[in-house]
Amino acid sequence: MLTIDNLSASVEGNPILKSLSLTVGAGEVHAIMGPNGAGKSTLGKVIAGHEEYDVSSGSIHLSGEDLLELDIEERASKGLFLGFQYPVEIPGVQNHYFLRTVMNAQRKTRGEDELSAGDFLKSLNEEMKALNMDADFKKRAVNVGFSGGEKKRNEILQLSMLKPSLAILDETDSGLDIDALKVVAEGVNRLRSPERSFILITHYQRLLDYIKPDVVHIFADGSIVKSGGPELALQLEEQGYASFGVKA
Amino acid sequence: MSEIQLPNTRQENWRWNNLRWLESLSSSAKNQIHKAKSNNQNVKFMQAIEGARESISVFSDSERELCELALCGKTTSIPDVYHDRITPIKIQSNAPHEVVNRNMITRVGSHVNACFEVDTASANAQWTNAWVHCKVESTSTLDVILPSISESQVDSALTLTLSFDLEASSRVRLHTFLSNRSFQRVDVLVRLRGTNSTFLARGLNIAGEHEEQDIHLHCLHQAPKTRSHQEHVGIAGHHGHTIWKSLATIERGAHGSESFQRNDNRLLGNKARVSSKPELKIDEDDVKASHGSATGRVNEDAYFYCRQRGLSPRDAKALLLEAFVEKSFDDLSSLIDKDALAAKVERALGKVIYEE
Questions:
Q1: Would the CB atoms of A84 and B305 count as touching at under 8 Å?
Q2: How far apart are CA A24 and CA A18, in angstroms?
Q3: In angstroms, rounded to a whole number, what is the distance separating the alpha carbons of residues A236 and A220?
Q4: Do B307 and A72 touch (CB under 8 A)?
Q5: B193: number of Cβ within 10 Å
Q6: Which of A25, A41, B67, B202 has the smallest number of CB atoms closer than 10 Å to its CB?
Q7: Which pLDDT score, from 0 to 100, does residue A179 have?
Q8: Which residues of B touch A76 (CB under 8 A)?
Q9: Per-residue confidence at B58, pLDDT binned at 50, 70, 90?
């Protein structure tokens, strides 16, 4: 599914990712945990193709496609989804209009027909119901006036509509109360499938109580310092980063 | 002899100067003008106008109206106003290599709801200069829309003055959309003369490559409890220049009046220019007035967000700019074909993005 090999990236000359390698198999859920400033969010943005970052070496392949050769929107249409830590507000653009526009843009890039209004609405209503979202969210401007929990739920709605093959969720649990966290986690679990992989970037073990990862990575100073099973997250919760030789 | 001093488009105050002298005519000058006009003696008529420029006296409503009529040798009056459909005000000019003046004066009677569309599509001259004056009588409401987004006269200039006199409890709601001419300058002069009169303005300038889209507003609060509310957005493309200048004057005696001005702009391309100047002059104590202006590029986080969701650079920018201009359409009269107007705006935006 995703293969990152020896990846190094910098912003304005400052190296952030340092010879990072990571493989995520189809259908797997990987959790990346690390202290502030370790470069976790940068990893998500570099995989997505953010133009602020310079990739100096290495490669990123998604299902055999060389992502570094593709523009941001081409990567998205190849099945890459980045859930934002701080979802952006877009005043003046209604949620349903935005979703339909981006879905059709991806379909167009893939050479598929546009989704009909009827099919789109049917699918949207089903997904919103599953996420326990009020119908009025459709007509509200994208993320404008949404609470923190509503914004994250809206990210999961987009994820469930776009049906990517790889979803990177950047601190999806931050700012969520326990009920909102459960709703978001249920949404992610519902979307787990043998064809879809997830990378969860998080600070806290509590998210992993609801979304069981296959692999946990400890991330520090731009690279992965240790990988293991779900027990690694519990160990980290108990002993802290220092026990892994990481300066928090 | 010229009818009126032709505007130097780069000269800030030419229009105010031209209006100001009207407010200083003597009654003898008025009589001369009236007589000359009645006798259809054009030369004397024009001489009377020239003479009137040098006169100074207190200016009354009736004098001013007469002089406006006299000044505007080609004045067209629009006598009938219907509340259930749009009254078109056509700014027409056909001579391709001439400067053309067109002036109109109209009155909206008491208790009338009216909607005017100032149609500039037929302004084909190299330079069209027009003046539309509307007197809005008490308790009337007037919607005015100026959708001056040319689709064929891109290399032309249009200078237009809209002036409104509002009597008690009347309201004017103005929407302006300027794009796709080399130069457009719209001056809006509003006199809130009656208690509880209200002026609302929304506008959009889209200045494409080597275009200058310019709007100046002057709102005079001359009576108690008057209200003005202005929100304007501008987009300057590569080598484009959008200008918004607004002055609200709250005169002594205009107790309890309120004024609000807001201007937001987006710059596209390295050579884009924005000039924004909100201004308040307040001569009374118990009033509320505020203003603000902000200019920047398209939000980079929102741009990345849209592209990550699958939009191309051009589509992402178009979506964000369409959202940015959306509020220009707020409060638009239901008589206007909003979809057709939105399509014109969308085409103008597409052109600006393409040129970037």
A1: yes
A2: 18
A3: 13
A4: yes
A5: 20
A6: A25
A7: 83
A8: 307-310
A9: very low
Clarify whether residues B162 and B194 are in a common domain. Answer: yes
- Let me know if domain A2-89+164-244 sits in CATH 3.40.50.720: no
Span of A75-84, B68-77, B180-189, B231-240 with lowest mean pLDDT: B68-77
Residue B188 and residue B205 share a domain: yes
* Closest CA relative to residue A82, chosen from A128, A109, A49: A49
Residue linked to tokens 């943005």: A45
- Band (pLDDT 50/70/90 cuts) for residue B12 is very low
Which of A101, A151, A157 would best serve as a mutation to test chain B binding (most B beta carbons within 10 A)?
A: A101
Side-chain-facing half-sphere of A9: CA atoms under 13 Å: 30
Interchain pair B308, A72: CB under 8 A: yes
- Measure the N-to-C terminal CA separation of chain A; round to a whole number of Å: 31
Task: Show Cβ contacts of residue B102 under 8 Å, excluding neighbours closer than 6 positions.
Answer: B74, B76, B91, B92, B93, B128, B129, B130, B131
Indicate the Cα dihedral angle A220, A222, A223, A229, nearest 10°. Answer: 50
ipTM score here? 0.95
Residues B49, B156, single domain; the answer is: no
**Nearest-angstrom CA–CA distance, A137 and A140:** 5
The answer to whether A81 touches A159, Cβ cutoff 8 Å, is: yes
Least confident of A35-39, B72-76, B84-88, B273-277: B72-76
Sequence-distant (6+) residues with CB within 8 A of B120 are B91, B128, B146, B148, B150, B158, B160
Count of domains observed in chain B:
2
Whether residue B153 is predicted with pLDDT greater than 90 in this model: the reply is: no
What is the model's pLDDT at position B31?
61
Cα–Cα distance measured from residue B186 to residue B91, given in angstroms and rounded to the nearest whole number? 13
Partner-chain residue, chosen from B312, B320, B326, that has the shortest CB–CB distance to A73: B312
pLDDT (tens digit per residue) in A213-238:
999 999 999 999 999 999 999 888 88
